[in-house]
Amino acid sequence: MIDFSGVIGALELLSSSYTPWLVVFPGLLIGLIAGATPGFQVSMAMAIVLPFTFSLDFLSSILFLTAIFTGGGYGASIPAILMNIPGSSSAVASAFDGYPMTKKGKYNHALGLALGASCIGAAISYIILFLLISPVSIAVLKLGPSELFVVTLWGISLIALLSSDNLLKGLFAGGLGLLIGTVGMSATGAIRGTFGLAELLDGVPVIPAMIGLFAVSELFSILHQSHIVADDGRQDVKRSDILRGFFDVWSYPKIVLRGSLIGSLIGAVPGIGSSVSNLVSYAETKRRDPDPSSFGKGNPKGVIAAEAANSSSEGGSMVTLLALGIPGGGGTAVLLAAFNVHNITGGPRFIMENTHIVYAIVLSNFAQVILLFVLGLMFIRLISLVVKIPIKFLVPTILVCCVFGSYGVTGDIIGPIIVLAFGVLGWLMRLNGFPVAATVIGILLGRMAEGELMRSFQISGGEIEYFISRPITIVFLVALLLSLFGGRVLRQLR
C-alpha cells in the first residue's frame, strides 16, 4: 500500500530546495573512498562526519549519511577485486571470484560487474522499501510498550550474537552499551552513574562516544602499520572495459534478483546485514549453478551475487530503522544518532506523521543509485589508489577531524575527552574480541528500552503478569530466547 499523498508531498519537498541534492555528491564520494580503504569501515566515516551535519536540516543530513552508506557498498569491492583485500566484511565474498578475475587480467570487467550489481541491487531494495514501509508502520503501531521493550532487547541480542563468535562476549558488549545508555538523570529524577559530574546529567554524549568506539578505536588498531596495504602493485583501470562489465550484469537477471532479495531480507534483521548477506547470496548462487566447481576461479556470477546482496541490504536495514526505530548495524546506528540530533524519534509514529519526509528519503536514494554509477566511473582510478596513503598521514588527519567534531557537539572539552576514553575502550574491546557495534547500539537504545519498560510497569501497576498476558510479547520473548540459545539446544539434542 502506497500513500500517494505522501509521494506527492515528497516530490514537492525534493523540488522546493536544491540543498538536499548538493550533499549527495560529496556523500557518495566519501562513501566510495571509505569503502575502498581496507579497515576503514563505512560506519566509521559516517560517525566522523556526523557532527558536520548539525548545521543542515534533517532531510539534508539524512541524505548525506545515506549517500555515504550507498557509496561504501560498492567502494568496498574495489580493493577486494584488485588486491584480494576486502574494504569491509560486506565485500568478503566479492573477492572469491573478483580477485581470480584480476589475476586473469579481467579486473576491469570484474569492477564493472560489481558496479552494475551494486546499482541494481540497491535500486531493488529501495523499491521494496518504497512498497513496504507504509504497511509495516501500520502493523508496528499496534505494538505496545512491552512489545517494543522486548523487540529492543531482541535487536541488541541479535547484534551481540551475530557480531561475535562468543555469545557471552557479545551479550556483555550489548549489556555494557545498555548501562552506558542509562547514565544520567532518569525520567523519575534518579541520577545514575554520573560519578558526581554535572556534564553527565543528560547522559553520555552519544556522538563523541560513537566516534570514539567506531573511528578512534580503529585508528589505534592500525597504528603499527606503515600502510593500510603493503603491496605496491597497481592495476591499469580502464573505464571502457568497466562500462562493458556493467552492461554484462543484465545477462544474469535471476542472479541479480535473487541476490537483491536475499540482501533485502537479511538486511532487515538487526545485527546481520551485508556482512552475512553477501556470503549467503554467494553460497546460494554456487549451489544452484550447474558448474559449482567454477566458483572461486573467476566466475563472474560470484561477483554479481555477492555485490547485489551487499548493496541491497541497505534498503532492508532502513525498513527496520524507520519502522521500529532500531538500527540494523553500524551504518544505521549512525543514522539513528542523526535522528536524535534533530530531536526526531524513528518508528511508526514518525512514518505516519512525516510520510512525505520518509518517501523523500526513499526517492532520493534512487537518485543516489544513478549518481553512484556516474561517480564509480569517474573516480574509480583515484579511489583504487587511496589504499596507498601512509598511515602516518592518514591517522593524524582523521584524528583531528574526530577531535574538532566532538568539540563542536558538546561545546567544551568533555567532547574530546569522551572520544579519547571511548576510543581506548573500543580498542581494548577489539583486542579481546568484544563486538564494538553491539555496545554502540546498546548506548543508542538504552534510553528507549528503559522508557518502554517504565511505561509497561506504569500500565500494569508494576505487575510482572502484564508481560505474560500479552501474546505478542510472549512471541517476541520466545523468538529472543530461540535466537540466543536455539542453536545450542538443537546441537545438544542431536
Architecture blueprint of SSEs:
Elements: H1 4-16, H2 19-22, H3 24-36, H4 42-49, H5 58-75, H6 77-83, H7 92-103, H8 107-140, H9 145-162, H10 167-181, E1 184-185, E2 191-192, H11 206-221, H12 239-248, H13 253-267, H14 274-288, H15 300-324, H16 330-341, H17 348-353, H18 355-384, H19 391-410, H20 414-431, H21 436-460, H22 465-468, H23 471-493
Antiparallel strand pairs: 1-2
Helix pairs in contact: 1-18, 3-4, 3-5, 3-18, 4-5, 4-11, 4-16, 5-15, 5-16, 5-18, 6-7, 6-8, 7-8, 7-15, 8-12, 8-13, 8-15, 8-18, 9-10, 9-21, 9-23, 10-21, 11-19, 11-20, 11-21, 13-14, 13-15, 14-15, 16-21, 19-20
3D architecture notes:
- The structure is a single chain.
- The chain has 494 residues and is mainly alpha-helical.
- It has one domain.
- The chain has 23 helices and 2 strands.
- The protein has a two-stranded antiparallel ribbon.
- Strand 1 and strand 2 (191-192) form a beta hairpin.
- The longest helix is centred in the first third of the chain and has 34 residues, at 107-140.
- The relative contact order is 0.19.
- The mean pLDDT is 79.
